[in-house]
Specification:
- There is one protein chain.
- This protein folds into two domains: 202 residues, Ribosomal Protein S5, domain 2; 173 residues, GHMP kinase, C-terminal domain (Alpha-Beta Plaits, 2-Layer Sandwich).
- 47% of the residues are buried.
- A six-stranded mixed beta sheet has the order 5-4-6-3-1-13, sandwiched between helices.
- The chain is of the alpha+beta class.
- It is built from eleven helices and 13 strands.
- It is globular, with a radius of gyration of 21 Å.
- The structure holds alpha-D-galactopyranose (GLA).
- Alpha-D-galactopyranose (GLA) binds next to α5.
Length: 386
Amino acid sequence: MTQNKVVAYFKKHYGNDPYIIKSPGRVNIIGEHTDYNLGYVLPACIEKSIYFTIQKNNSQYLQIEAFLSEPEKITLPIDGADGNFESFWGKYFEAILQILVKKNYPIQGMDCVFGGDIPIGFGLSSSAALCCGFTYAASAALDLKIPREEIALIAQAAEHKIGLNCGLMDQYAVLFGKKSNALFLDCKDLSHSYTPINLNGYSWILINSNIKHQLAVDSEYNLRRRSCEKVVQKLKESHEEITSLRGVSMEDLKEIKNHVSKTDFRRAGHVIQENKRVLKMIEALKEGDAAQVGSILLAGHRSLSTEYEVSTKELDFLVEIGQKQEGVLGSRMMGGGFGGCTINLIKDEFEESAVKGIIDAYKAETGIDAIYNHLEIGNSVQLLSS
Ligand code: GLA
C-alpha cells in the first residue's frame, strides 16, 4: 500500500522511471549494547520498511518529499551545506550528503520521495532504514556502486554526526539481513553468518509499549557508551592489550572493581554477560530449545533493566506481566531502550490469550494502549525495480 502510494506520487510529480528501493527496519533477538563494545549481536530484518523512489534531476539540489505522519518536502544543495528545513529527518539527508561529498562520490541533483510503515521511535531502527536506504538509493540512481559494507559505515557516520554514538548492529541488520534468519554479527571484525530463528510451535511477537524514545538527542545512550569506555581505559592501565570490552572476563573486570564507579562496573558486567547470552542463544535456537530461548530473553531483560539501566517501568511491566501468562516463554525489551518494544516468544496455542492478557493488564496499569505485531522476518535493503 505505502509502496504503491510512494511510487504513484513520484510518477505523478517527478517522472515515470524512478528507482524503487525497499529498506527494512530491524529487530534484535539478543545482544543489546554490545555492538559498540565490539561484541556479538543477533538482529534480523523485519517486513516493515521504508520505500524510496528516486531519480536524477539535472540540478544541483536534492528534493525530498516524505510521507510520514505529515507530508513534507525539503530541498538541499547536493553538498549538504546550509539546508533550510525544520524536520528532524532532514538532518539525516544533510549528514549523508556531506559524508558522500567528503568521500569524493560524484553527487548530482536528485528527486526522492519516501514513506513507509516502520513506526518511528519504537526501537525498530527507522533511522538505520532511512540512512542505509537513502545511501543505497542514491548509489543506485547515480550509479556509484557503493558496497554494502561502506553504506553501513556511511549510515553510522550520519548517526554520529547527528549525535548518537551508535554501533553497527542496525546498519548491518538492514544491509545484510535474510528472510527467516537472524544475522549473527561479530562487531569486532564484522564477520557474519545466519541462524534460523523459527521454532516449531512458537511465535515471536513484538509488543510496542507506545512510549517513544529519541535516542539521537537522548544523551543517556551515549553515557552508557562512555561508561564502557571508562572501564576499558582503566583495564588498559594493567592490561595493555585491552582495547574494548570484547574478550574481557568477569575476573578481569573484578580486578578493577574498586577503581571504577559502581555504575560503570555494573554496565561493563552487562556487556560481558550479554556476549555470552548471544552465543547461548544461538545454541538454544539450533537445538530448538524454546524454554532455554525464553530464559535467555528474561536474563537479558533483567540485565538491561537493573545493570545497564536502559529499560523503563512500562517495559519492565510488559515483561513481568508476560511471565504471568500461560504460554509466554520469555520476553525482553529490545534495542537501545528508554521506550519502544518488547520481543516475546509465545507458544502458538496461547498466542491470542497471552497477548490479550498482556495488553489488557498494561492498559489497566498505565492507561496506555500497547500495539502488537507478529514478527515477520524479511530481506535486507533491495532494489525493487528501476
Ligand atoms: C541502538 C543503536 C545500536 C545498538 C542498540 C543497542 O539501536 O543504534 O547501535 O547499540 O541501540 O543494542
